[in-house]
From TrEMBL:
<feature type="modified residue" description="N6-(pyridoxal phosphate)lysine">
    <location>
        <position position="664"/>
    </location>
</feature>
<dbReference type="InterPro" id="IPR035090">
    <property type="entry name" value="Pyridoxal_P_attach_site"/>
</dbReference>
<protein>
    <recommendedName>
        <fullName>Alpha-1,4 glucan phosphorylase</fullName>
        <ecNumber>2.4.1.1</ecNumber>
    </recommendedName>
</protein>
<dbReference type="GO" id="GO:0030170">
    <property type="term" value="F:pyridoxal phosphate binding"/>
</dbReference>
<dbReference type="GO" id="GO:0005980">
    <property type="term" value="P:glycogen catabolic process"/>
</dbReference>
<keyword id="KW-0321">Glycogen metabolism</keyword>
<comment type="function">
    <text>Allosteric enzyme that catalyzes the rate-limiting step in glycogen catabolism, the phosphorolytic cleavage of glycogen to produce glucose-1-phosphate, and plays a central role in maintaining cellular and organismal glucose homeostasis.</text>
</comment>
<keyword id="KW-0328">Glycosyltransferase</keyword>
<comment type="similarity">
    <text>Belongs to the glycogen phosphorylase family.</text>
</comment>
<dbReference type="InterPro" id="IPR011833">
    <property type="entry name" value="Glycg_phsphrylas"/>
</dbReference>
<dbReference type="Pfam" id="PF00343">
    <property type="entry name" value="Phosphorylase"/>
</dbReference>
<dbReference type="InterPro" id="IPR000811">
    <property type="entry name" value="Glyco_trans_35"/>
</dbReference>
<keyword id="KW-0663">Pyridoxal phosphate</keyword>
<keyword id="KW-0808">Transferase</keyword>
<dbReference type="GO" id="GO:0008184">
    <property type="term" value="F:glycogen phosphorylase activity"/>
</dbReference>
<comment type="function">
    <text>Phosphorylase is an important allosteric enzyme in carbohydrate metabolism. Enzymes from different sources differ in their regulatory mechanisms and in their natural substrates. However, all known phosphorylases share catalytic and structural properties.</text>
</comment>
<dbReference type="GO" id="GO:0005737">
    <property type="term" value="C:cytoplasm"/>
</dbReference>
Length: 824
């Protein structure tokens, strides 16, 4: 402890240039972070060296998004120095918890996809897999959400303003990134046509490394994030012509590339700068991967034996064309050889079946910005369509493909003709990869049967499932110390590395003393949340209420509106005195809406309007409260999830690819009210469906309802409570003086087809909520189920998910000496 204290003081003085006697929490947080980083860097260097020494096959995880959240607590726990740090900082006059609050969330992602990437890096580090995360170091992460007059207002997330003590910026290792320009043809010595791309503009990519430690194993992997740097300061011409300001302007323009994360989530914006970001990220990453590979290899055909590249969604899919370009134009390989290398190296994960999220880029834009890549994509397509023809005519594809060859070719082509001629990035990713995976069993089945059915027929081996998981280090151990300590006192700490060990809790569910201790841990977490809400929102929570929580991005398919209709109905019953047996509850909502997503923003407004009305109504507000948690983010989730008793997972069946919040809640002992969707299905199967509150129509039932003509008006007319709730929303009951404010929401349901079947599931949802309320009155039974939920969550560890990727997709083994935990 004395060593750590000394290091902290030294950093306050020599790294931060401050007086250690001036007790600034900001300085002491930074100094502690630097002292922790010192303890990581040696192991990071050793880890990187060992990969070379053992000629390990490396995994590169390419993701435009990461959501690491805060690093301090997690890193202290991984290093096993949490207690030491707590005591050391307390000696220096600080509470560790307060210091940790000084850190800004690294919000370099939108939601589930980005958080999954961060959980995966944690698992690779813990399992000893030679992995690297690659991404972009956005200067501005996901926007900061404030609620003003009930509405979402976006503010810039200037997370780097106060510096980032965790990152190593490596200004000496810059990689050139080229755009635009032209392609020249030439003939090589064997008479083959060759191509050279001479680019117009160049910018530079600077690596910023953030260290990702494994759990208690000395294995530290790297998350390398690229930051755009201009090359104009090296361009003497500018200075010679005296155009200093012109040069500076161009520099600023170049560095725009990594300025800001696109805040759209499952809606593609298709903006030119976004494509620039994607290519900027991809080319720098591929250059770095090949630089490392070439240190030990000359023969490019050995690449797939040494390197596995996982594409996190299609955002980095242009990497396929980029690697082809390098192999063809720089290494001068033949097409077939290059293509084999690509396909064997790449694998692609799909995260959504929503059609509006499937990326396409206009051919005209690609031709201008990346002319050589567009040529390559055309060539990939031509060869692929010939192959389709061959397979379709062959026996093994059967009549199915053959009958309608032209249509089949149009459907699978990389190029879509309408509404504008564009490249379908998902098709590029599928064709250029040896593995395409979905993220939960149902999602993968839907990929095979619907979204990519043609590809499933053409390549029946390619599409596979890897159900998501979450890291128990952050989402149980670090976020929920009260519960973790209780668990550890009964079964030891092995569960942090091997989550299956939680099954040892099962017999304890029958032990009243253990149940009481379990409830005490939950209460402690509820009180912590209470204190936080008081500080932040100046609201007093009732900890004896059932804490019912719906936090995730705001999206119509996630059906926050269904939850809101339940709240309004409960409000009406209480007002009308029809709810004598109502179990008091506080309903929490939280989540960001894409700034351009009108309906999602209106939903936020409606939730806040209903909250204001309900909370102000003294007839009901001792029994029902509604809280909107502004600026939902990773660190907020870490506070809220441990305090949650009821987890809302109520998406339209078939629409939520997996969900990962669902896993975090159950792991922390919340019971789930949910639809038969995403990974909630597999959770119900693992836990026992009777221990969750499952309701609503299933995916196949919805398909047939749609086919037979779904008429939401029937539900409106047939259900008095539903009608009352919708009419209130449409009138000004929640928006005094602003008649019609929420009419778009209601009209969308009644006259817009209710694409997400809110009305169809309303009555069943109410029934399930009634079951929840009733069960909550029986605290012994509730607690028993809560324990069993957590005990059966072992499968949903990201360690299990990453082990499957490593074995079944990457063919990568953990580093020797690390498999069983302790590293060398
Ligand atoms: C999300 C899915 O919506 C969510 O269900 C899943 O758990 C998560 O990915 C991780 O796999 N998708 C996204 O965040 N974004 C896109 C473009 O799919």
């Amino acid at each position: 402890m004395e060593g750590l204290k000394k290091d902290v003081i030294r950093h306050v003085v020599s790294s931060l240039g401050s007086d250690y006697a001036s007790k600034s929490a900001y300085n002491y947080y930074n100094a502690l972070a630097l002292a922790v980083r010192d303890r990581l860097i040696d192991n990071w260097i050793k880890t990187q060296r060992s990969y070379y020494d053992e000629k390990a096959k490396r995994v590169y995880y390419l993701s435009l998004e990461y959501l690491p959240g805060k690093s301090l607590m997690n890193n202290l726990h991984c290093l096993g120095i949490y207690e030491t740090a707590r005591k050391a900082m307390s000696d220096l006059g600080f509470s560790l918890e307060d210091l940790a609050e000084q850190e800004w969330d690294a919000g370099l992602g939108n939601g589930g996809l980005g958080r999954l990437a961060s959980c995966f890096l944690d698992s690779m580090a813990t399992l000893g897999i030679p992995g690297y995360g690659y991404g972009i170091r956005y200067d501005y992460g996901i926007f900061h959400q404030v609620i003003e007059d009930g509405k979402q207002v976006e503010q810039a997330d200037n997370w780097m303003r106060v510096g980032n003590p965790w990152a190593y910026e490596r200004g000496q290792h810059l990689f050139p990134v080229r755009f635009f320009g032209e392609v020249k043809n030439w003939t090589d010595e064997y008479g083959r046509l060759r191509h050279t791309w001479t680019a117009g503009d160049t910018v530079l990519a600077m690596p910023c490394d953030m260290l990702v430690p494994g759990w208690d194993n000395h294995h530290v992997i790297n998350m390398r994030l690229w930051s755009a740097r201009s090359d104009v300061e090296f361009d003497l011409d500018f200075f010679n012509t005296g155009n200093y300001l012109g040069a500076v302007e161009e520099k600023i323009f170049d560095e725009k590339i990594s300025k800001v994360l696109y805040p759209s989530d499952q809606i593609e914006e298709g903006r030119e700068l976004r494509l620039k970001q994607q290519y900027f990220f991809v080319t720098a990453t591929i250059q770095d991967i090949l630089r490392r590979f070439r240190k030990k290899h000359q023969d490019m055909t050995e690449l797939p034996q040494s390197v596995a590249i996982q594409l996190n969604d299609t955002h980095p899919a242009i990497a396929i064309a980029e690697l082809m370009r390098i192999l063809l134009d720089e290494d001068l390989l033949d097409w077939e050889v290059a293509w084999d290398i690509c396909v064997s190296t790449f694998a692609y994960t799909n995260h959504t079946i929503l059609p509006e999220a499937l990326e396409t880029w206009p051919v005209s834009l690609l031709e201008r910005m990346l002319p050589r890549h567009m040529q390559i994509i055309y060539e990939i397509n031509a060869r692929f369509l010939r192959e389709v023809e061959r397979v379709a005519r062959s026996e093994d594809c059967g009549q199915l493909c053959h009958r309608d060859l032209d249509h089949l070719k149009q459907r699978v082509s990389l190029i879509q003709e309408r509404p504008i001629k564009s490249v379908r990035m998902a098709h590029l990713a599928i064709i250029g990869s040896h593995s395409v995976n979905g993220v939960a069993a149902l999602h993968t089945e839907l990929l095979k049967a619907r979204v990519f059915d043609d590809f499933q027929r053409l390549y029946p081996q390619k599409i596979n499932n890897k159900t998501n998981g979450v890291t128990p280090r952050r989402w149980l151990w670090s976020a929920n110390q009260p519960l973790s300590r209780l668990i550890a006192s009964h079964i030891g700490t092995g569960f942090v590395r091997n989550l299956d060990e939680l099954t040892q809790l099962e017999p304890l569910a029958a032990d009243p003393a253990f149940r009481e201790a379990w409830r005490a841990a939950k209460l402690e977490n509820k009180q912590r949340l209470q204190a936080y809400i008081k500080r932040k929102l100046m609201r007093e929570l009732h900890t004896e209420h059932l804490f019912d929580v719906h936090i995730k991005r705001i999206h119509e398919y996630k059906r926050q509106v269904l939850n809101l209709l339940h709240v309004v109905t409960a409000y009406n019953r209480l007002r009308h005195g029809q709810a004598a047996d109502f179990t008091p509850r506080t309903v929490f909502f939280g989540g960001k809406a894409a700034p351009s997503y009108f309906m999602a923003k209106r939903i936020i407004h409606a939730i806040n309007a209903v909250a204001a009305t309900v909370n102000a109504d003294s007839r009901v507000n001792d029994k029902l409260q509604v809280v909107y948690l502004p600026n939902y983010c990773v660190s907020q989730a870490e506070r809220v999830i441990p305090a949650t008793e009821l987890s809302e997972q109520i998406s339209t069946a078939g629409m939520e690819a997996s969900g990962t919040g669902n896993m975090k809640f159950a792991l922390n002992g919340a019971l789930t009210i949910g639809t038969w969707d995403g990974a909630t299905i597999e959770m119900a199967q693992a836990i026992g469906p009777e221990l969750l509150f499952i309701f609503g129509m299933r995916e196949d039932e919805l398909v047939s309802l749609r086919q037979h003509g779904y008429n939401p008006m029937l539900y409106y007319h047939g259900d008095e409570e539903l009608r009352e709730a919708l009419d209130m929303l449409r009138s000004d009951a929640f928006s005094p003086g602003q008649h019609g404010l929420f009419a778009p929401l209601v009209d969308n349901l009644l006259h817009g087809g209710d694409r997400f079947f809110v009305l169809a599931d309303y009555r069943q949802y109410l029934g399930a909520q009634q079951d929840v309320g009733r069960l909550y009155l029986d605290q012994e039974e509730w607690t028993r189920r809560s324990i069993l939920n957590a005990a059966r969550m072992g499968f949903f560890s990201s360690d299990r998910a990453i082990s499957q990727y490593a074995r079944e997709i990457w063919d990568v083994a953990p580093m020797a000496g690390l498999q069983n935990g302790k590293g060398a």
